[in-house]
Design goal:
It is a single chain. About 30% of the residues lie in helices and about 15% in strands. It is α/β, with parallel strands linked by helices. It folds into 2 domains: about 140 residues, 3-Layer(aba) Sandwich (Rossmann fold), CATH 3.40.50; about 40 residues, no CATH class. The chain has a 6-stranded parallel beta sheet. The radius of gyration is 17 Å and the shape is globular. The two termini are about 20 Å apart.
């Protein structure tokens, strides 16, 4: 059975981080113009104050799975072994990572009841995960897989088709596209 590594944030779910960030700022930043993977870099010199207030928040409290995610993952789990691989360390408040880990675990356990919690991988270094297929929104997390699916997010939209093709990466925009790519051979 082939294995799939699936990223959590911006692939399975959008946590409430964006809402919390925008509430703090009082406006919606230009994420498309942000030249960073990390939304909090839009805060500039307000970052320390923001994280003092943020560290008590649970960004997964009211979060939901992305459209079609549950159904497609459930179908995939019948023909692939699924691993959810996610980073839980906030680089600005490393000492509060335990809370983030607990919140992520509880969200996954509650929302994806068909995936064994032993298949959750919590790490900042996804290169240690050896899977046949990797689905992530961060290009560098895809390496090592024979099939690489880059889930579109604000920070990777600038990557051209040619750049992705050079690295044997396929862009996907939603879970229906993933279903078509990964289940097409299994449908009769």
């Amino acid at each position: 059975m082939k294995t799939i590594m699936v990223d959590m944030d911006d692939v399975l779910t959008y946590g409430r981080f964006t809402d919390i960030l925008e509430d703090y700022l009082g406006y919606k930043p230009d994420y498309e113009g942000l030249n960073s993977f990390y939304m909090q870099d839009a805060l500039g010199d307000k970052k320390k104050d923001f994280f003092e207030k943020f560290k008590s928040k649970n960004v997964y409290e009211d979060a939901t799975l992305l459209p079609d995610c549950y159904d497609v993952l459930k179908k995939l789990s019948k023909v692939y072994k699924i691993y959810i691989c996610t980073d839980y360390i906030w680089r600005e408040i490393v000492e509060y990572s335990g809370d983030s880990l607990k919140n992520k675990f509880n969200f996954l356990h509650d929302k994806l009841d068909f995936i064994n919690p032993r298949n959750y991988v919590f790490t900042a270094d996804k290169s240690i995960v050896n899977c046949d297929i990797k689905i992530d929104d961060k290009l560098e997390n895809l390496f090592g897989a024979s099939q690489k699916l880059l889930f579109t997010a604000y920070h990777n939209k600038r990557l051209s088709k040619d750049e992705l093709a050079e690295q044997n990466v396929v862009r996907v925009n939603d879970w229906k596209e993933i279903e078509k790519l990964l289940l097409n051979d299994f449908e009769s």
